[in-house]
Amino acid sequence: MASTILLNLIPIFLLCITIAQGRKTLHTSHEFSASSLVSTKDGICKTMVETQGYTCEEHKVTTQDGFILSLQRLPAGRSGERANKPPVVVQHGLFSDAVIWLFNSPEESLGFILADSGFDVWLFNGRGTKYSTMHTSLTPNDKAYWDWSWDELASYDLPASVEYVYNYTGQKMHYAGHSQGTLMAFAALSQGQLLDMLRSVALLSPIAHMNQISSIGTKLAADLFIANDIYWLGIREFNPNVDVGAKFLEGICNTLHMNCANLMSIFTGPNCCINSSRIDVYLDHEPQPTSTKNLIHFSQMIRTGNIAKYDYVDQAQNVQHYGQRVPPTYDLTKIPNELPLFLGYGGKDMLADVKDVKVLLNDLQDHDANKLVEVFNEDYAHIDFIMGVTAKQIVYDPMIDFFNGY
Ligand SMILES: *[C@@H]1O[C@H](CO)[C@@H](O)[C@H](O)[C@H]1NC(C)=O
Ligand SMILES: *[C@@H]1O[C@H](CO)[C@@H](O)[C@H](O)[C@H]1NC(C)=O
């Protein structure tokens, strides 16, 4: 029973945790060192990777706006044989971090599966998450630390991490992203970034257009988020686990007169294939915090269906930031037609709704047909793509075949 409730809370956590992250992150201690290859006693390598018998390296990269991000590298498979294939970089979604790719057994988790398939695996951690809390001049206690949305994840975090791997390995790489990690890629690629460093791009639960999402919980959250005073109250970090974040979620559940034990389904769809006996392990670590501004940005997308930069609403502020009164849009038709793309999406996904994915596919209608692979599974919802016990057969194996082609 307790597990069921916790399981059901995960989607909400995934949606809401970002606000809370700042507080938690203060407790982690990651020394910034001049060398980018670092050793961290309590890092992801030590706690999640080496414990499974794999080698692992901790790396750090500093973004142009001063955030110090951690990356974990799995340079070999479990047998110890070093990677003989190009790097694959893996980008997590909202309310999570790189740990999400290592939660299940090595036979089920994408991070380990890629390493055992011969790839040089690099896991990214976005700003504000547990292992990427450092900044050259700010701390998570500063409001300015949380002054970003996915625009900055796409224009700073992603290029810094990809360029770091490119510089370090001297090789072009494959990209795999989930949810917000797909939106970051769409935004960057549509602006011509990263292209010279990537071989191919895999997008799981692709998030682009968002106005047909079928989750009424998420829709209500989006409406409340725009109307609600969380940001204007001065709360810049959203943590679903405490105070404002927790009350916010409780309010949604009460307003909808829904069974609060089903929050995960309410927000992400009925995940078919998550191992319920592992929920406690997930909740030891997730969800991770995000910025309030990021959630407002998502709410704007849900309202409009547009993929545009953050709207300050105030025209003068938009002019100040963008030189125009309305935020510039990201034009996905600009993604080069010959870039190999893999799209994995599910019939029960309430965030990357099939109807919205069709609008995305329409944006990509001129894409070279032999460079666009679609894997659709009718039963999969949002979280199945990262934690599903069947994800290897259904998603990861076809994705690896796709990578092997480039
Ligand atoms: C990658 O190398 C280039 C050229 O040396 C350098 O300008 C850039 O800062 C490096 N990027 C990262 C993220 O280390
Ligand atoms: C589910 O998790 C439990 C506990 O970690 C594990 O023993 C079991 O093998 C897992 N089942 C599947 C299908 O992965």
UniProtKB/TrEMBL annotation:
Instruction: Kindly list the biological process annotations in GO that this record carries.
Output: lipid catabolic process
Keywords for this protein: Hydrolase, Lipid degradation, Lipid metabolism, Signal
Which InterPro entries does this one have?
Answer: AB_hydrolase_fold, AB_hydrolase_lipase, Lipase_euk
The protein's GO terms of the molecular function aspect are: hydrolase activity, acting on ester bonds
Presence of keyword Signal: yes
Ranges in coiled-coil conformation: none
SUPFAM superfamilies attached here? alpha/beta-Hydrolases
Q: Does the keyword RNA-binding apply?
A: no
Give the annotated active site. S179, D349, H382
May I ask which residue range the UniProt record assigns to the signal sequence? 1-22
Q: Which Pfam families match?
A: Abhydro_lipase
* Ranges for domain Partial AB-hydrolase lipase: 46-104
Q: Which domain of life is it from?
A: Eukaryota
The protein's matches in PANTHER family, at most eight in alphabetical order, are given as: LYSOSOMAL ACID LIPASE-RELATED (PTHR11005)
Q: Which family does it belong to?
A: Belongs to the AB hydrolase superfamily. Lipase family.
Q: What is this protein called?
A: Lipase
Please name the source species.
Pisum sativum
